[in-house]
Amino acid sequence: MQKISGMRLFSELVVQLGTSTKTNDRLELLVNYFSAASDGDKVWVIALFSGRRPRRTVNTTMLWEWCRELTGLPGWLFEESYHTVGDLAETIALLLPDADGVEDPGESLGYYLIRLGELGKEDEAARKAFVQRCWAGMSRDERFVFNKLITGGFRIGISQQTVVNALARATGAEAAVVAHRISGDWDPETTVYATL
Fold first, then answer.
1. Which of 48, 115, 143, 186 has the CB geometry, 3.0–4.6 Å to 93, for a possible disulfide?
2. Which residues make Cβ contacts (< 8 Å) with residue 63, sequence separation at least 6?
3. How many Cβ atoms from other residues are within 10 Å of residue 90's Cβ?
């Protein structure tokens, strides 16, 4: 059985959490994620779910134009699609040529988040090349989550306590200990999961 990469595993988690309404189901999804994900990606998920979102390094106008360029859609049709869907990240994920069934590129969630942070120092051509290359190698769900991370619009309706409880169950530690360890000022780029 082939191991699923960090970004694919994370996007599956986000989609499942988005369709689940029961706290116990969400808790179980998180426990399963924390049991299966790499240590590096666990740190990033803890950071994301506790409000440490990456800084936006690509503006929405760029994403809009890059998607229009790939799809060949006229501006008015893109705008109509966006107004119908109501979310730019989702609109782009839906409009891009279908990439479902593509081979998993094998990159970790951490790779994408670190790379997105680095894009702020690069010119528009480098940003465009990276984003379009990622879109081409991702499934629709992965593109949706990736776009949410790019736009700074990544929010998940999971309470901090649910994350703490899931980590406690996955690690065997007490919830109060977990809550203390993940609070405070720490950087997911330099923090090791075992230390955290």
1. 143
2. 88, 92, 131, 147, 150, 151
3. 18
